[in-house]
């Protein structure tokens, strides 16, 4: 089953949000306008706007208010991708050239800043102070997560706790915030808004872990970027942490990345092959499944609603995701 089938009834509203995002990024300056539009047209799952809408369905759902939150959240996500590509020196995103590749690092950084500024401009049209505070705190944590990722690159002996804390900041909190802000904008009871936040947090952790798994198990065509790219960038993900417990992989990784020499495709193919021969993928899926079970447990306490079934469907889809 495709992910979109779990929330088919939101298609009209998601189309509305897509147009809203396109309208918001239209800058007067041609370079900012073209760069932002280039990123939007490259596609993406738009999963964060979906969580905003599903969170809002538990209250007084108003598409205009949902659109404000969803647009703001998606712009923050887009800004983080642009900045990530500069940090990682990435040339391909979603199967096409990154903004830094198409223009340069300076244009990419200012494009990311522009998207972030537009996001904050949009969210302040909501009067709820809690929404502003929640989003601001999340942006702070995302920034800390990015800095931590830079600091932790090529640190092969880091703990699982360090990895989990990093993906919490980088990925899970923005998904959790998507769920909660949708609820806040719809006037959902505080206890249920907090439950939606927890659901989003657990889903976000699972989602990132599976993304990290797919970096090794999917093809370049499926990923839209080279397989093993995270490891190539020196990012120590959960499959790598587990595989590092095997002396052969541990030794090969350290020898491959020692010094300033660049790592070639043949070396990456060998590393990926050796990682797959360990139980790293299986153990990583087990951790992902643990977070999914927690997400489903939280949903048990939410009132019965069509969107609750969609949230269950998304959790089920993520658990089965293999590409």
UniProtKB/TrEMBL annotation:
Q: Which UniProt keywords apply?
A: Magnesium, Metal-binding, Transferase
Gene3D superfamilies to which the protein is assigned, alphabetical: Farnesyl Diphosphate Synthase
Return the InterPro entries for the record: GerC3_HepT, Isoprenoid_synthase_dom_sf, Polyprenyl_synt, Polyprenyl_synt_CS
Enzyme Commission no = 2.5.1.30
For this entry, list what GO says about its biological process.
Answer: isoprenoid biosynthetic process
Q: What is the catalytic activity of this protein? A: 4 isopentenyl diphosphate + (2E,6E)-farnesyl diphosphate = all-trans-heptaprenyl diphosphate + 4 diphosphate
Task: Supply the enzyme class, top level.
Answer: transferase
GO molecular function list: heptaprenyl diphosphate synthase activity; metal ion binding
Q: Which cofactor does it need?
A: Mg(2+)
Q: Give the matching Pfam families.
A: polyprenyl_synt (PF00348)
Q: Which NCBIfam families match?
A: GerC3_HepT (TIGR02748)
Family as reported in the entry's similarity comment: Belongs to the FPP/GGPP synthase family.
Say what the protein does.
Answer: Supplies heptaprenyl diphosphate, the precursor for the side chain of the isoprenoid quinone menaquinone-7 (MQ-7).
| PANTHER family (alphabetical) | ALL TRANS-POLYPRENYL-DIPHOSPHATE SYNTHASE PDSS1, GERANYLGERANYL PYROPHOSPHATE SYNTHASE
Subunit organization: Heterodimer of component I and II.
Annotated protein name in UniProt: Heptaprenyl diphosphate synthase component 2
